[in-house]
């Protein structure tokens, strides 16, 4: 029997050796043909059948997949995440039960035991911010994600934005029509008037605060003076539009006095090397991207390369802060920033939202009211936007457990030793316990039965609108109103009175005639 098995095995081996290569070739050819056939057939069918395209409805935000956080770290960037979440719903969801006024995300890193979202607040935390980095390091993208988040979470009566771009405004397409946008300077010619407008607004606010006996904006409680966040996209363009000394003087004055007036600046540029940097004493947070030269580290963070290296080492020896000149070069290092606040140095990667995502978020923000025609978006509208964003129905839940589908998000933990003092606050379960949607109750500003604002805020600031509506109840004509408020009966001030009265239906001329 043994010899028969031997014979059979030998025959099989010989057959494989003889015909095997040919059969293998035929099999591969068949597979290639099949692949080609399968990919071609639908394309041909589509071309011939060509059914009328069915318009697909815009996918609701909730249709976005929210996979768990990817904790991979980007090499050479401390503990910055390589692929931070690219959907704003992550952040909205994570902060939903712990809303803090004027909170904004900085970037993602790995904390001590988990993924961490580093953040800051424009009230009770940081004042003005400096944002720097080599070309294509992601400065504008950083600002867009921060301002989008701020606008999502704060209604236009609480937050207004001024964007001084000067490069054509391509990063800010669509922002000009939004109720949050108080100023959008797109072209180089717009820069000087924008600087002047900012100065006037600061002066006007100081006058209002003085009249209300307030030492600072935080004390002012009439609810009609929104925080104004100013983003200066490229500081060198402001210098080109003015001069080195003029810019330095303007920055010094504005940054020094704006804080008390409820104005916060994010001053951006490739580097502040060789600029007059007296104003830097007003900066409380540095967000610094890649720099090709080591001597650029100090002007952009206040620390030298060697100091940053020392400060960037955590107690357990982990490198969490990397000097800008040693960060990965863009495009690999795009969106990677070393944040410096006081003596805390942390490197992180900002979330990046692609164009479709940015535009979708923008489309959900309230538009500017048409001139004096209808009212601005109120808090209730804003709430419904947020609900839509995170996939809630109209009823707000009382606990986070009903909001967060189990397992779709890993808990974000505070980056304990490395957070800039404000890493995402502990894990979500702590905020779940609070459960309340504090800060999301509708509270439209109503004065003498008129819900404000009645006209766009860039046309007439909210506090101005309130004063006009308030005073209208005490006088019998618009001329008297103008006189009472501005000690004049004509000019630009009268036009403002007219615009607001028309929109609110106050002191209508025909009513007087009747
Ligand atoms: N957080 C990020 N993660 C990954 N890639 C990013 C990130 N931010 C920006 N990028 C990439 O870098 C590119 C440049 O970004 P952006 O225009 O914001 O840079 P910039 O610093 O403003 O450039 P410039 O100095 O030329 O104005 C983006 O188009 C994008 O591809
Ligand atoms: Mg840019």
TrEMBL record:
<feature type="binding site">
    <location>
        <begin position="133"/>
        <end position="140"/>
    </location>
    <ligand>
        <name>ATP</name>
    </ligand>
</feature>
<dbReference type="Pfam" id="PF01580">
    <property type="entry name" value="FtsK_SpoIIIE"/>
</dbReference>
<protein>
    <recommendedName>
        <fullName>FtsK domain-containing protein</fullName>
    </recommendedName>
</protein>
<dbReference type="InterPro" id="IPR027417">
    <property type="entry name" value="P-loop_NTPase"/>
</dbReference>
<dbReference type="GO" id="GO:0005524">
    <property type="term" value="F:ATP binding"/>
</dbReference>
<dbReference type="InterPro" id="IPR002543">
    <property type="entry name" value="FtsK_dom"/>
</dbReference>
<dbReference type="GO" id="GO:0003677">
    <property type="term" value="F:DNA binding"/>
</dbReference>
<keyword id="KW-0067">ATP-binding</keyword>
<keyword id="KW-0547">Nucleotide-binding</keyword>
<feature type="domain" description="FtsK">
    <location>
        <begin position="112"/>
        <end position="298"/>
    </location>
</feature>
